[in-house]
User: What shape does this take?
Amino acid sequence: MGKQTRSRKSDNVIGKGKVTPVQVAFIVDRYLSDNNFVRTRSTFRTEASHLISKSPVNEAPKSLLSLGDMLDEYICLKEQKVLLNQEKLRLDQEKFRVQTLLRGMQDAMNAYTSTSTSTAAPLPSPPMLRPPLLSSGHFLLY
Assistant: This one.
């Protein structure tokens, strides 16, 4: 079995954990053990002995999530991320629609005020209303 190398996009990405080769070896070992791949596990442990021997523990801890559980959790988190991205897109689209509506309303108000002040004569002020006169000639005060 040859070594596999793969390039990482960025080592300084926030929120990205770094899994060591020793951890991967324990995950694979646990998977092989859980699924009773006895000969394959024996071969793997021989080939990965330089990784397994670096650890003070020669067995994967039972508290370690199984490979299946890790993949289930990963898929669940990816689905949540997709849903959050879709919701963010919907919110951005709604924000754009509201901004467009407000801009249109502001343009309409500006057009209305500019045409009404330049073409229309000023409105006369309302006439002064007097309180009603009583027969005695005095004003009725409220």
User: Anything to note?
Assistant: The radius of gyration is 39 Å. Residues 5-13 have pLDDT under 50 and may be disordered.
